[in-house]
Specification:
With 194 residues, the protein is mainly alpha-helical. It has seven helices and two strands, in the order ββααααααα. It folds into two domains: 72 residues, no CATH class; 115 residues, no CATH class. About 4% of the residues have low confidence.
Amino acid sequence: MVIANFGGLFLQFGSIIDVLFQLENLGFFAFVLPFLLVFAIIYGILQAVHIFGDNKAVHIIIGVVLGLMSIRLPFFADFLTEITPRLGVGLTILLTLLILVGLFTPKKSTNTILWILFSVGAIIAIVVIVQTSNVLGYLGIGAFSSEIIGWIVMIAVLIGVIVAVVAGKGEHGGDEGYGSLWPAIIGQGKSHSK
């Protein structure tokens, strides 16, 4: 076990779990990470849209101000604490589907599969937001039970399958082959070589 002294503040480090608990006790997850997240998002948006020109100092000041204002009240940290694990699970499900579909998808049905994956991502986003809102009490207690969410997901999957079958019958031509979804996802598309 390592004991570190930071200006009279003694921290004990025995394992990574101990380090994470120490960081949590210091407010790292409740204040520092939410501040950095808001700052990075605001700064990135301002850099991309050039509302204030290319003046990075103004972008930094606006990002810092909005980041500090966002952590002033605890409900933002509570929201991030609840939504982040659910978002991680949702992204893992979507990534797994993306990998499996990319391996076994014929080239002619790429657009249909992308729409289905987009629909699955939208369903995951709705489920994540609804579950987070239920935990935090934003929608009222019991507004959406697990049974209702299950029915919504089942209906959406059924609609997605119907759309895939109908769209698959309407597509003509195209090369047969599997594993063609990856170029469309990473933006390579068709090659322009003659």
